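Example record used in the benchmark description.
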Amino acid sequence: MGRRYLNNSHLVDTVIGGWALTTLFRVQTGQPQIVQPNNDPTNGAGQSQGIRVGDPNSTNLPNPGKGAVCATQTRTVNTWFNPCAFTTPNPATGPNDLAAYGGYGRSVVYGPGYNRVDLSLLKKFTIYREMALDIRADLFNALNTPAYGQPNATIGNTFGQITSTRFGGSGTAGETPDARVAQLSARFHF
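Model output (structure tokens):
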């Protein structure tokens, strides 16, 4: 406000001058997940983890069998990580068989990261004395960046696949829009 445009015209200054643009940029790395077998090889003794046999981001891995289909490409919705990088621990042979618990600390995979740009354009129009009108336009997820959910980390048919969006849940997460959303608002002060 206070600047004049187009040869000091009051009408043009009222319409064009005094606008404010705000930007909010959010970024987050992928969340860690522990790979788990689809059965309990410890026979109910505790929580087991998958055994890492290769780099989860590599596409050049031998197929360990057990129904796994190796990925030809990673970091996609269908194969976020290579399912052939993990195998199920062998069943326990006795109460002290630690091999059935899997590879603790080595079976962590990271889901997709998240970034989002929100924009707001706003202006205050003074009408008369204390009366004013605030106009605001908001654009949430301005670049329409997809927000993928976590990949399936349980060894099985959809192992390594992303089947949902980050904000597809219920409560606050379900109310947060994933796609681009525009909002226009006005507030009158008197």
